């Protein structure tokens, strides 16, 4: 989906920072909450049927693309004031930032501003 020249730096950063544990940055590209739910439910159904168990909320959550993930901050670029089928379930307790920049123009300075704002509210 992404060109090689975009994939390579992302893979390099992932490899370079894989041992870090204080913070995690997730980038979702061509993502759909609806598809994630359908995939998680299907996987949960298969797991539970094979064990003769009921499907529970915990089982479904454990089968999300990133299990048991609740982000602290969500950044929505492009000046759209909606989530557009994006991490609908996981963002229930999250600070959501809507920014005017489109993704290619979103800078490290934009990110730092949002992180500092989040940290100041947490204190």
From TrEMBL:
Gene Ontology biological process: polyprenol biosynthetic process
Keyword Transferase: yes
GO molecular function, one term: ditrans,polycis-polyprenyl diphosphate synthase [(2E,6E)-farnesyl diphosphate specific] activity
InterPro entries reported for this sequence: UPP_synth-like, UPP_synth-like_sf
Chain segments annotated as coiled-coil in the UniProt record: none
GO cellular component: endoplasmic reticulum
Pfam families for the chain: Prenyltransf
Keywords: Transferase
Similarity section: Belongs to the UPP synthase family.
PANTHER family named among the record's database cross-references: DEHYDRODOLICHYL DIPHOSPHATE SYNTHASE COMPLEX SUBUNIT DHDDS (PTHR10291:SF43), DEHYDRODOLICHYL DIPHOSPHATE SYNTHASE FAMILY MEMBER (PTHR10291)
Name of the protein described by the UniProt record: Uncharacterized protein
Lineage, highest ranks first: Eukaryota, Sar, Alveolata, Ciliophora, Intramacronucleata
